[in-house]
Amino acid sequence: MYRFFVQPTAIKEQYIEITGNDVNHIRNVLRMKPGEEILVSDGQGKDFSCVIQQIEADRVTAQIADVEGENRELSASLYLFQALPKGDKMELIIQKAVELGACEIIPVETKRCVVKLDAKKAQSKTARWNSIAESAAKQSKRQIIPRVHPVLGWKEALKYAAGLDLCFIPYEEAEDMRHTKELFAQVQAGMSVGIMIGPEGGFCESEIAAAKEAGIYPVTLGRRILRTETAGMMALSVLMYQLET
After folding, report:
1. Which of 94, 132, 167, 244 could connect to 194 by a Cys-Cys bridge, CB 3.0–4.6 Å?
2. In the beta sheet, which residues pair with residue 168?
3. d(CA 154, CA 159)
4. Cα angle: 166, vertex 172, 173; to 5 degrees
5. Domains and their CATH numbers in the chain
């Protein structure tokens, strides 16, 4: 069943109005007809099973048949702080982070980032990345649309991470896996948890020192060196598995 997201204001007592780009998608791409069933989410964790009633040029009206279904969100909020990678890797990272349950992706510019975005490019990229997050949320049947935050500098990222319950930073010189497992085991339902991933060249020692001073725990992801696009997925996968079981 196809899923669409709407603003809470579009949800009435007995029906939902879908507007914007999804109208064209329903009419001309999916070629759906009145009577077909769809899922609609308010982007805040509530799902509605609906039946299309009317398809117009600028809106689709769907009758609400049932409210709320299976909860697909994790019991903790996971935040991925991702240093800007080269090329189009960020798009893949965002897509997979959304599939793995992240609630927010925060792009970060660190000292060893090859990519440097000016204000105009950063704004354009952020809009593109949020569009990818929305598409991934629809495909994976998320009940929220994870936000891709505007690009932050390292000091800003540390300040943002300080507001979370726990935050980890994978680092090649971190203590052994046993210590990492003990740290990950502290993650519980209801917590906000961050993962900070470095760029292709890794973090500078000064950045790691600043992270430690901010209360962020260095962890290891194993004896192998992982690419920046792999490290975040690996860490999110471990936390997702822990929270799902």
Report:
1. 167
2. 195, 217
3. 9
4. 85
5. 3-67 (2.40.240.20), 77-244 (3.40.1280.10)
DSSP 46-108: -EEEEEEEEE-SS-EEEEEEEE-----S-SSEEEEEEEPPSTTHHHHHHHHHHHTTEEEEEEE
Q: What CA–CA distance (Å, rounded) separates 29 from 164?
A: 41
pLDDT along the chain (245 residues), means of 10: 89 91 92 92 83 93 82 90 95 97 96 88 93 92 91 96 96 85 93 96 94 95 92 95 84
Structure tokens at 2: 């196809």
C-beta atoms surrounding 46 within 10 Å:
15
Calpha distance 60→191 (Å, rounded): 38
Q: How far apart are CA 37 and CA 13, in angstroms?
A: 18
The C-alpha angle 78, 112, 207, rounded to 5 degrees, equals 60
3-state secondary structure of 206: helix
* pLDDT at residue 173, as a whole number: 80
Q: Nearest CA to 122 among 135, 107, 102?
A: 107
Kindly state the DSSP code that residue 240 receives in the 8-state scheme.
H
pLDDT of residue 70: 61
